[in-house]
Every structure is written in structure tokens, then in C-alpha cells.
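Troubleshooting entry. The earlier prediction with zinc ion gave an output that would not parse, so I re-checked the input for stray whitespace and re-submitted. Clean input:
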Amino acid sequence: MLNPHPIFSENVIAKILNMMRDVVAKLPVLHRWVILAVFSLVFIIMLLPSEKANASRSTASPTQLVVGQHYDVPVVEQLQEQSQQPDSPKPVTKSIDLKLIEKRVVVQKGDNLAKIFKRNKLSAALLHRLVNLNKDSSALTRIMPGNELTFLFNEKHEFQGIRVPKNKLDTLIISKAGDTFETRIESKTIEKETQFAGSTIQSSFWSAGSKAGLTDAQIMTVANIFGWDIDFALDLRKGDSFNILYEKHFVDGEYVGRGDILAAEFINQGEVFQAIRHSDGEFYTPEGRSMRKAFLRAPVSFKYISSNFKPRRYHPILKRWKSHNGVDYRARSGTPVLASGNGKVIRSGYTKYNGYHVFIQHGNNIQTKYLHFKKRPNVKKGQRVKQGQVIGYVGMTGLAEAPHLHYEFLVNGVHRNPRTVKLPKSQPIAKKERAAFELIVKKQIALLDSNKRVMLAMQP
Ligand SMILES: [Zn+2]
């Protein structure tokens, strides 16, 4: 590291040393001592690090700072920026020589910016100016107890800037630029790790999902991914199972949260459904068909239905659909009712038997009907609705003994079971995405399979 002349090979150095030894041997003793002293001195000077190396080392790692104390800190950022872009013009020498004093302040409970600024002898006018600089700078007002703010002063204690953490990833930096201030956001990179979760349903998907380590939001996402294939309100059974791959996020080695679900598999009454996330954020079957279809299997969100899932007392269907041409979803009064597909409202009103109800026409040949709303529907006749849009709320108006949604699905005027009716295949993934998607499928399916094998091996 400290050899200043790496161009000399060992051989050459040895030869020179030999030559010098021969010369020195022929000299008087005093001369030998003088020469030895001179060489030693030269050697010691060579060992001393140059000034440049010394400077770069001192900026490499700031030591622990104590709140409320002043420290002299060189302008590290400018030096780093310069070294990253060797072609860019060098910043003026003045800005490098300028010493900034960094002062870190941890926001206390009951603190606010006005108090913090006052304690640091900064005016309310300055605070007002900073907060109102732009959209980014308004993050200043959202500081929380525990946040660490960093004030930057020059040697005359003139305000030069402030660093404010926005979240675990982003830091807002306001810095003085002449007479005005500049803002920028500095972002840390997220490291991603793939995690596996899988289980078999005993009592409900919620509890099985939670036990497997999924969050409520992830459980809902899985129900949404398969919401066009599986009726999560009525079709789940004990023994159904699921396997999920999802991302965990880390910043500076610290866990910060969960990312996307990457792949999901749901085995419902023996039927296997798989969904793989593509880089467009959409889920497709491994064959490359969109998971999104023209109709949701259930016009109510799993979120509201699942709490009723009790395997022994599980009789959500009040009547068989054949006997009364529909499916009944038992749900708490007020549960949102969703349009199962895009379409146009052809009826919205009240009758003695249907209570408050909505009929929707989808394309030319399919109609869906929703009965017994709690109150007047959310949509009017003639209105276009989108799949998943809330059209009303579960109730028991009309001929109903308990709050429930009565749902009918008609193809060419004939009642069909909405939970089993065959629907047209969904859109395939774009041709140009095909090759990239197949690589993702290969990787994720292999990862799912290997994790499933490990899970099985660990089971008693
Ligand atoms: Zn019914």
C-alpha cells in the first residue's frame, strides 16, 4: 500500500542494493554512517502518507455526533459528487474550503418546527420561507418525534441548509444556493429478498394466511388475484391450500417492509390456480393469460365475508341456486356490493319482492342482478359501471329474512350459476412480453416448487 515505486521489480532493487553495498564497503566508517542516516531519512519520508490521502481518509467516516454540540465537518457531498463525475467542471475551490458546521437535532415529543428553529436561533420567517419553497420542502412540516434533523451552518452561524428524513428511504435536503434555497431528495436503495409462505386451510383463509406469516393486506391481495376464478366467500373448503412468493425489503440491512407478491398458487377443492407477476405489475397464468376476467366470481369483497367462515356452521347459501335462480351471499348489513363486470345499469329501484335492487347489462348477452340492498342503490339507470365499483350495500329490503345479497347471472336470458358458468378466456400477455414473461415463470415456479418440497419435508 505504501510502496511509492511499484515500477521497480524486486530483481532491480536487489541489484542496486548489492551495488551500493560494494561501494559502501570500500568507504571509511564515518562515511558509511552518514550514508546510512541519509537513506533512513529518505525512507521515513517515503513512508509518510501524502496530504491528499490524509484528507480523503478524514472524510470517509464521520464519528458519532452528540446532539447540541458543534462540529467542524468538511463539505463531504461536494467532494463525493466531484469524484463520481470526473468530466464535470470542478467546483470552485471556495466551496471545498468552506467549513460547514453540522448540528443534529432529535425531534422530541411535543416539539414542533417553530420551537426547534427558535432553540437554534433561527427566525420564524426563515422557517416560513423553507416550508413554502415547493412541494418537496413541505415535508418539513411532517416531522415526527424521534426524527433526526441536521442543520448546516457556516462559521458565522448563518443557516446553510437542513437535512430532514421523509421516511426510511428518502431524505429531503434543503441547501442554500446564493440568495435562494434548493431542495432535493436523496434516496437509499432497497435490497429485495424473496420469501415463501404456504399453508393448508383449517378454519379460514385469514387464519391460515396469518399463521403462514402473511399480512392482512397480503391475504387480501391473494384473494383479489384469484377473485376472477375462485369465489372466496362460498368456495373455500377445509384442506384448500396456498403457496406464495413475496418480496421483503431491506435498507442498509434493516428490514423496512414487504414488497409485491411475486407468485401465488391456490388449490381450491383440488383445482390448482397459479398466478405469476409480470414486470408490468399484472398477474398472469403460467400460460400467459391475464388473471383479470370479464366477471368477478363473487360480487362482494372477501374482506367482509371471511369473518363468517366457520366450517361447521358454514351454510351461506340459504337456498340452492337452482330453486331460486341465484346465489345468496350472507353478509353483514352495510357490506359493499360490487359490480361483477363492466356494464351499463338497466334497472335501479325498488319493488316489493326485490327490495332495492340493480340490474346490469354486460355486452349483448350477459345480465347480472343484485337484490335486497339496504337502501337506495349508488348507481342510476343508464349509468356505466366498472368491474369492482360499489353499486350499493347489503341489506334485507324486499322478501328477505336476513341481510344478504341475492345475485343472479343470466346468459342470453337463461339463469346460470355464476360460480361455475364458463366464461370466455381472458386476454393473453402481449407478444413482445412473452419471452421475458416465460423466464419469470420458469424462475418463480421452480422457486415455489423447491419451497413446497422444503415445507413438506419439515412437516411431521
Ligand atoms: Zn336469494
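This one parsed fine. The first strand starts at residue 71 and ends at 73.
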